[in-house]
């Protein structure tokens, strides 16, 4: 009898892991950067057992970190012709982080209504636009340093994953 219960437990664990992998694969297949999405979500132990709302919270946290990293890298280029771009980038990255914090709170209170979904998509899109504005500011000031571009691409790709989740709710 013990071996039958062990077999049942093994089958349930296999099914659960398979379904979790399927959720991550489904979300990441729709992302702009599927490999980054898969790497980030599979490397976080909290994704084990997470539903779509849980994945959303995790990816928001990762997006906030990446956006703050973009801000830090951009600030390292202050001075000279980049001062205006750094100021714009600072302001828009801070706004993006605020938008992402709003998304996190709204996910906690998510009720499944169309207005809740719309609010998440709107705020997520605003965060993405804010990071894109950082890129634009550097381009207009004579060119975006590769380090800023790399950091902002990661932030935008992670915010895009959040938008995939929001669209899947």
From TrEMBL:
Gene3D superfamilies: Invertase/pectin methylesterase inhibitor family protein. Residues 19-165 form the Pectinesterase inhibitor domain. Pfam families: PMEI. Transmembrane segments: none annotated. InterPro entries: Invertase/methylesterase_inhib, PCW_Enzyme_Inhibitor, Pectinesterase_inhib_dom, PMEI_plant. It comes from the Eukaryota. SMART domains: PMEI (SM00856). Residues 1-21 form the signal peptide. GO terms for molecular function: pectinesterase inhibitor activity. Keywords: Disulfide bond, Signal. The keyword Ribosomal protein does not apply. Belongs to the PMEI family. PANTHER family: PECTINESTERASE INHIBITOR-LIKE, PLANT INVERTASE_PECTIN METHYLESTERASE INHIBITOR SUPERFAMILY PROTEIN. This is Pectinesterase inhibitor domain-containing protein. The lineage of its organism: Eukaryota, Viridiplantae, Streptophyta, Embryophyta, Tracheophyta.
